[in-house]
Amino acid sequence: MKKTYILLFLLILAGCSKKKSTYKVEDSLKDSLINYFDLANDQTVSTSRRFQITQRAYNIVMNQENDSIHRVNLIRIANRFYNLNKLLDYEKTVRTLINNSKQADDTLCLAKAYSYLGDYYGEIIKPDSAYTFYFKAEKLFLTSNDFYNLGRTRYNKAFLQYNLSDYLGSEIAVFNALRAVKGKDGKDLIFDCYNLLGILYNDLGEFAKAIEYNAKAYAIIDDDINSSILQPRAMSLNNMGLVYQTMKNNEKAIVYFEKGLSQENLLINQPSVYAMLLDNLAYSKFKIGQTKGVMRLFEEALKIRNKLNVKTGIIINKVHLSEFYAFEKDTVTAISLGLDALETAKKSNNNRYELVPLKQLALLQPKKAGAYTSEYLRINDSLQKAERSMGNKFTRIEYETDKIKGEYSTLELKNRNLIYLFGFFIIIALFLYIVKSQGTKHKVLLYKQQQQQANEYIYNLIINQQNMIDTSRVMEKKRVAQELHDGVLGRMFGVRMNLEGLNSFNDDLAISQRKEYIIELKKVEQDIREISHEMNREKSELINNFVAIVDNLFEEQRKTFPTKLITKIDRTIHWDDLTNLIKVNLFRIIQESLQNCNKYANAKTIKIELLKINGNISLEIADDGAGFNTKMKKKGIGLQNMISRAKECQGELYVMSNKNIGTKITVIIPLEQKQIPH
């Protein structure tokens, strides 16, 4: 919602020279205007009634003399037309303000009018014109030292560029806006800038920055901002939730959406934000399988958006509903909603909105997928071409605008330049004389400086090389320690337990089993030898046949220990597609967990599940043993190794444990590994 441009005036009325009846008429008009302005902003009054009141105020103001109060009243009327979405009346009022400001040589009001005209062209999707007027307003605010409105205009430019996918230009404009109000009042503008940066970085996939700036936006909200922005906390919480929804962390996204919906009077003050939160909450719940009540949330959000005629929201809402009905196997309804979304997008005069419905319909109607995909690619290509030229177009607008302004002062600059040129030649001659006289000394100093830089460079190379050697040594020690702890010690522990159990037996079976364990000890010896030569045979076998080696580990566990072992491995996982690092670390985590259960848990049952869930490998190891206190600051080397192995695979390890109840370890590793530079 546009912020009202407020100026404070001290009105001094000299009533001695005016008739009593005239004073009463002016006073009555002033009181009427105040009442009209208040009623026009009253959300409890119907839209049609507020529009009538604003028109009455406009008629009164147009009969006023063109003074500062008159122009401020025009600004207030323009704001109310804008809030009512009466764009034609809004433009007419702004054009009047431009003419009157030029007549009165009022730079501030003219700048404000230009920024409002930029808003108008932005609403009717004429970005070239919008950018031109924003640029004109920016120049005037800069010359007037009105830093708040300078920052606000730069923010409007940034928002326009973001909507046109000129992300680089938008990012630069936002930071220019923040620079304008740095160290000055303007928390509401800073909130808007942080909010836009959060949205922008989310679209760019830079989620850490998106979370950072959304958090900054939320942190800056206080009572002052609440008085100028309706429900900023709800907006900020929704944007934060969208970041996590994009990251497919829907559980965390739900927390933010629910917190946003809990804001007081949100449905009354900002129904569009309330509907957005409802839709996003329903979609995140649907994505994690919580389908109960989701349909009601989707339909309530769509009802509000239809009432408000928010086309973008209606399109997204219908696509989400289409996905839900497709999941419920109601393909007919899903296709109908997808077609409705596509039709709404076509009526919006913005091809970008057609992409999401086309993509959904291609999934729902395989026979027509070719046609939908072809249309999708055509629109996407045209948008990309337009986006590539957008930044150059805005630069050209700035250049042409400056060029027109520059032509008015060309003659004056020519005369001034003659004086500057003469003085410049005198300075150059003096400078050349000084340079020549100091040439030898300068060369000596330059040589010494280069020698010093070379020495520093060589020294830094030596230090960096030493640091790399030290780092490699530490990493190698850590790797060998992990292999010894997770592989060798676990197997030696199992052999020792079995040998202790056979101490009291001397029959043929016991002798045969002892021989088997002696063979196992030889294998351990071989493992240690291979570790020392960095040739771990077990790792190679694990990489080549992961499921078989894990099954062997489970079978050995069942033979050796009385604890009941329940296992489940998703056989649909393509282990050959996974990196060796993931398979080795998963095996070691399972091995270390079993060893910990055998040593400390005293459990009756161990349950291990290795599944593919939502594009991730999910490993869950649970026992009903003694448990432990997870809040202990110091963790054992085994648990530290497991955490380290999970992080090596770009995953997370979670531990839940309660005394006398048991322990559950969950490891989530993404199937698609992001490339991390060394």
List keywords for this structure.
678 residues, mainly alpha, Serine Threonine Protein Phosphatase 5, Tetratricopeptide repeat, five-stranded mixed sheet, 27 helices, 5 strands, extended
Alpha-carbon distance between the two ends: 47 Å
Task: Report the average pLDDT across residues.
Answer: 80
Radius of gyration: 36 Å
Largest beta-sheet details: 5 strands, mixed
- Are there runs of 5+ residues with pLDDT below 50, and where? 1-27, 535-544
- Examine the secondary-structure arrangement and name the CATH architecture of the domain at 546-678: 2-Layer Sandwich
What is the CATH homologous superfamily assignment of the domain at 546-678? Histidine kinase-like ATPase, C-terminal domain
State the CATH class of the domain at 546-678: Alpha Beta
How many individual helices?
A: 27
What share of the residues lie within helices?
over 70%
Report what the structure shows.
- 73% of the residues lie in helices and 6% in strands.
- The chain is mainly α and 678 residues long.
- Among the domains are: 1-105; 310-387, Serine Threonine Protein Phosphatase 5, Tetratricopeptide repeat (Alpha Horseshoe); 417-458, no CATH class; 546-678, 2-Layer Sandwich (Heat Shock Protein 90).
- The protein is extended.
- The two termini are 47 Å apart.
- The model is unreliable at 1-27 and 535-544 (pLDDT under 50).
Helices and strands, with pairings:
Layout: H1 20-40, H2 47-62, H3 68-83, H4 87-104, H5 107-123, H6 127-143, H7 147-163, H8 167-180, H9 187-204, H10 207-219, H11 223-228, H12 232-246, H13 250-261, H14 266-269, H15 271-287, H16 294-308, H17 311-327, H18 331-347, H19 355-364, H20 369-407, H21 410-437, H22 439-502, H23 508-532, H24 537-544, H25 546-560, E1 564-569, H26 580-601, E2 605-613, E3 616-623, H27 637-648, E4 652-658, E5 662-670
Parallel strand pairs: 1-2
Antiparallel strand pairs: 2-3, 3-5, 4-5
Helix pairs in contact: 1-2, 2-3, 3-4, 3-5, 4-5, 5-6, 5-7, 6-7, 6-20, 7-8, 7-9, 8-9, 9-10, 9-12, 10-12, 12-13, 12-15, 13-15, 15-16, 15-17, 16-17, 17-18, 17-19, 18-19, 19-20, 22-23, 22-26, 24-25, 25-26, 26-27
